[in-house]
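Researcher: Can you fold this with zinc ion in place?
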Amino acid sequence: MKTIVLDAGHGGYDYGAVNGTRYEKDDNLRLARLVAADLRRQGQKVVMTRDSDIFIPLLERSIISNNNNADMFVSLHRNAFINPNANGAETYIQINSPPQNTRYAENILNEIVKAGGLVNRGVKSNNLSVLRNTRAPAVLVETGFISNAQDNADFDAHIDAYAAAVTRGILQSLGLPYNPNGGGYPANRELAAKIQRGLNQTYNAGLSVDGIYGAKTKRALVRALQTELNEVYNARLSADGIFGAKTKNAVRPLKRGAKNNSVYVLQALLFFNGYNISVDGVYGAETENAVRVFQQTRKLSADGIAGANTFEELFK
Ligand SMILES: [Zn+2]
């Protein structure tokens, strides 16, 4: 397992580039959270320099990376220019950094361009604090221009693909394979195995306890939810492991304070979607926060309450 430090540029009173009511700091954090989830699904350790809208000094960002002995540092930004026609993606490395850094920056940039929309402006070098003071190979990514309407439309339309692209570029650079089926290698294989054992014991799921989140484990979680909805709410669903319209309609919203097996299923889903939370069946502050972040990244209303839409997204 490698350690990747993700740095969502700017934050707090440092808005970064601004276009009307759109702030670079928000775009950076949105993308960073998606990349973090992707990388965790691929079994890697991720440290985020910030996971909320707070100000972090530039030097502090490098120190976080250095203290975590990161294998790679990736800073996520969006570009801006006076001329609104300027557009496209580019990556930066520190001037005079080793040749491998150029390859790393190319890997990420090529993947982003392949994901669609943004044109390739190439790898550039500059003297930038976060790159200069970070010991790990460091790349700064400019995911299109916030000053360009089409780049913003592409950013919004393809943000999941860009996150997957950054993830692929990082994995390539670190010599790691990319598993296209959502990875299935959670950062905490032990917890993954424990969840599978729990599903076997309580729902007779018949899973092999391998700690891998594949199609069978996902199906077992749908079945567990269906079973709970039948038992607690007499939903009369066939427990077939398919999250269809009937199951979606039968979902009862879960919120803070709830304590039952459906919460356990929710937490397991969050965990397998890359959230590092305890899976104990108790809907506390940690679960609520994870639900809220997940809702934000999936453009659902971020109320911290897990209803039908949230479950539907989690099962995707
Ligand atoms: Zn920036």
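Model: Folded with zinc ion in place. The CA atoms of residues 108 and 166 lie 5 Å apart.
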